Amino acid sequence: QALELRQRLLGQDHPDVATSLNNLALLYDSQGRYSEAEPLYLQALELRQRLLGQDHPDVATSLNNLAVLYVSQGRYSEAEPLLVQALELYQRLLGQEHPNVATSLNNLGAFYVERKRFNDAGPLLVKALEMRERLLGAEHPDTVRTRQWLERLQAEMDSEEHS
User: Fold this and answer.
1) CA pair distance 52, 69, nearest whole angstrom
2) What are the boundaries of each domain within the chain?
3) What's this model's pTM, rounded to 2 decimal places?
4) CATH classification code of 1-79
């Protein structure tokens, strides 16, 4: 309903419409309704690129969300370049000390853990954890999540070492 209202009031070509598309896609994504989420993520990305330009944090957010969807579907070769691009955009636009940069570092690090690319994962997750502890505090749910990824990384490395 929010999407339809924004489209009617603001027209199809408005950044707020892209936000509504993205939010609806996030909902579908969280429900495992990937085939419904993907076209909305793509629409939001296209709108944001066209209206805000390639160099905008909202474009990075769209890239990240689409990448996370692809990971959920096992579409790893499509996800990785989007995760890298989102991280580079966030770093360039928001600086090195921003929660979105930490999230992006975490997502790419987690991706590498999933793909068993442990040497790539470790430095990203350590940096994400340090940043999140500084910016959000040690007990923040995002900080805890990064710590869990680091623990999983260590467990998987130990497991591979013993096999």
Assistant:
1) 23
2) 1-79, 95-163
3) 0.88
4) 1.25.40
